[in-house]
From TrEMBL:
One of its GO terms (cellular component) is mitochondrial matrix. Pfam families: NIPSNAP (PF07978). Belongs to the NipSnap family. This is Protein NipSnap-like protein 1.
Amino acid sequence: MAPRLCSISAAARRVLGNPGPRAGDVAAAASTRFYSKDNESSWFRSLFVHKVDPRKDAHSTLLSKKETSNLYKIQFHNVKPECLDAYNSLTEAVLPKLHLDEDYPCSLVGNWNTWYGEQDQAVHLWRFSGGYPALMDCMNKLKNNKEYLEFRKERSCMLLSRRNQLLLEFSFWNEPQPRAGPNIYELRTYKLKPGTMIEWGNNWARAIKYRQENQEAVGGFFSQIGELYVVHHLWAYKDLQSREETRNAAWRKRGWDENVYYTGECHLRQSAGPLGHLRESCIRIKGCNSFYKEI
């Protein structure tokens, strides 16, 4: 047993004879390593993060089109399932008249029923040429339109709920125009983090060029009244297979993935779905990820 005790004692003396670094030295070294790592990380991030210059103007001034004063209203109507056909017939009989009446400064851009997404839903998109004054002029005239008041009364019996938003269009997007059909329409909706709308616009101003080859970009809008920090992108495709091919082609283009990455950091929630087709009407465009069919 003696040799074992001597061996242990010798090992203990070797350890005690070579004391480790003092506590102060350890703290200093740790601090140096932490500082160096943090600086390196910050420097590395600065190479890739797009910085947005601080702005003093409102989003609506910086992002919307200057040459036009169009205001848009989007309506979402959740219809009782058993009333959807009657609802579509009623809207087809009344809404196109407002679209064609020159006394009303509004035009019906599109009517849709949801194909995939929230079922038994109707979506209407209106354009008011002249901005808020045109909207108020139209609303005041509708208060005295007996046919429209009867329409609203009859429609109310068919609805479960409804909501709307007032929108402006992004300056770098196409203005919705008539197009040959039939088409399906996809409405992709993004809820942005407050304060990131300008960054979103900066990135999509570059990204939209990757999505123009098949003329699939219909319109891009951001909310002004209603739920705020909301963006809607409206796309049109011949069918679902065409949608798949068009989106895959965008991913093969250099730069598209980078724009998707940076806009992904801006939004909190995303939804998408196809809009279906509308039946005969004077609608300007046919067919939302909701996918929609035109009524």
